[in-house]
Write a structure and sequence with these properties.
Elements lengths: L1 H44 L11 H11 L4 E10 L2 E9 L3 E8 L5 E8 L8 H6 L9 H12 L3 E10 L2 E10 L2 E8 L5 E7 L1
Antiparallel strand pairs: 1-2, 1-5, 2-3, 3-4, 5-6, 6-7, 7-8
Protein name: PepSY domain-containing protein
Organism: Enterococcus hulanensis
Keywords: Signal
Length: 199
């Protein structure tokens, strides 16, 4: 009889503890569910793409130019690293090349690399070949919209500003489930230059 009472009390105690635990789990899961719902509605409001970076591409360019005022920018990448988006900006002057990273949320700038150019790239050769046209540059939001509309669905996740055959262009990676499409968009006109899908 004592064993049954002890067993009954043990079960009631465990049930009570489990109930307390599940209450706290429920409150955690409901708050995380509401956070997820908020995040989802935010991402849907921006055409399934998070382009609401606190630091615009123009701000990132200014941060680079403050670090290396006598150089020209040769490439800009906006990609995720350890859960944060970073601008990776490369540039060049007549004798050296540089790399700067700018946090897209905090605007924190870190100088990553500074090194001498090869002999064939010195005296302004690489500078003239690779300098990007930064005039009337389309925003991340605009090129994301152009690229996702071109693909028909999906979400823009990575952006690169580069140059080929004298044309400065944005390359936008659009993810639609497992399907990845890279869309090259003229950085000034918004024209689609090329599109490549990798299933």
């Amino acid at each position: 009889m004592k064993k049954i009472i002890i067993l009954g009390l043990s079960v009631a105690l465990l049930g009570g503890l489990a109930g307390c635990n599940s209450d706290s789990d429920d409150s955690n899961s409901s708050s995380s569910t509401s956070e997820k719902t908020t995040q989802t509605s935010k991402s849907q409001a921006s055409n399934e793409t998070n382009t609401n970076f606190k630091v615009s591409v123009e701000d990132a360019i200014k941060a680079y130019q403050e670090a290396y005022p006598d150089s020209d920018i040769t490439s800009i990448d906006l990609e995720t690293s350890l859960g944060s988006y970073l601008y990776k900006i490369e540039g060049v002057d007549d004798n050296k090349e540089y790399e700067v990273r700018v946090n897209a949320d905090t605007k924190e700038v870190s100088k990553e690399r500074e090194e001498e150019l090869d002999m064939e790239d010195k005296e302004g050769v690489k500078r003239k070949e690779d300098k990007l046209n930064l005039e009337n540059l389309l925003s991340i939001e605009k090129v994301s919209d152009i690229a996702t509309k071109h693909v028909g669905a999906g979400k823009a996740t990575d952006w690169s500003l580069d140059k080929d055959l004298g044309t400065t262009y944005w390359e936008v990676k659009v993810m639609d489930g497992q399907k990845e499409t890279e869309v090259k968009v003229d950085a000034q006109s918004g024209d689609i230059l090329e599109s490549e899908t990798d299933d």
